[in-house]
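Section 3.1: Structural characterization of target chains.
Under the original work plan, the team committed to producing a structural model for every single-chain target entering the pipeline before any wet-lab resources were allocated. The record below documents one such target. The sequence was received from the expression subgroup and is listed exactly as submitted; it comprises 243 residues.
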Amino acid sequence: MKSLLECQEIHLSQLKKHFKIEKQSDLFKLKYKNSINAILIRIPFKLDEQVASLAGLMPDGSLIKDLRRIYFHQKKDDSKITLFKDLIISLFSPNNKIFVTKDRGTLKSYINSTTLAMFFYKILKIPKSDEQMRVPAWIFNSPKRVKIAYLREAFAMEGTILKKLTEIRLITKDKDFAIDLQRLLAQIGISSFVKPRIGGIRRTLQYRLSIYGKENFVLFKEIGFSTEFHKGRFERLCSKYGI
C-alpha cells in the first residue's frame, strides 16, 4: 500500500494509451498522434507540489476546448505569469514558445501545443474551457503538502479577505468547483460554507465559499496567500485574532 506521504505517480503504461513515447537519455519524449510539438518528462511522472501548483493556477487559465492551446491570464499579480511559464518549462520542457502578451492592463500567457494540452486533459484531469472547473481527482488522494500547494494557488487566483478581516472568501461560477474546494479544505481540517449568490458585472449566478473563525484561520495559515496584496491583509487578520 502506498504511503500517505508519497506523491502519486503516472507510469509508462498509463501514458502509452494516449501518446507516442520515445526514450531520450533519462527523459521520455511524448507526442500526441501526429502533433508537431513534443514534451519531455520523467517517467514515472510524479504528481507533486509543482504539478499541484500548476493545476491550482488554472482557475485563472483555460484549456481551450479544441485542446490545442493552454492559456493563462492575470490581473492581481504579474509574478504568476512567470510562475505559470516556469512550471511548464520545468515540468515539460516543451519544444515550442510560451507567449506573453499584454492587453488592456492584463498580462496573458499561452502555449500552442496539442501534446501538452492533451497531457493536461487526459493525465492531469484539468477540465476544458467548455466544461466546469473542478479540483483534479488525484489531488484528493495526494499527501497534505500537495493539497496545500494546490489550495495556495487556487486561493491566490480566486480568493480574497474581507476588509473587516472576518472572512476568507472565494467566488466561482462553478458550483462543483466550490464544493470540491470545500471537500479539500475539510481534508486538512478547515470547515467552510458554500452559498449561491448573484454577482459580477453581468449579475450571474455565482458560488461563494466562505471560511470563518479563529480555528479555521489558524489552519489556513499553513496554506497562506502567495500574492503580495493578500499576504498583507492575511497578516492583519492573523494579528487581529492573535494567531
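The chain has nine helices and 13 strands.
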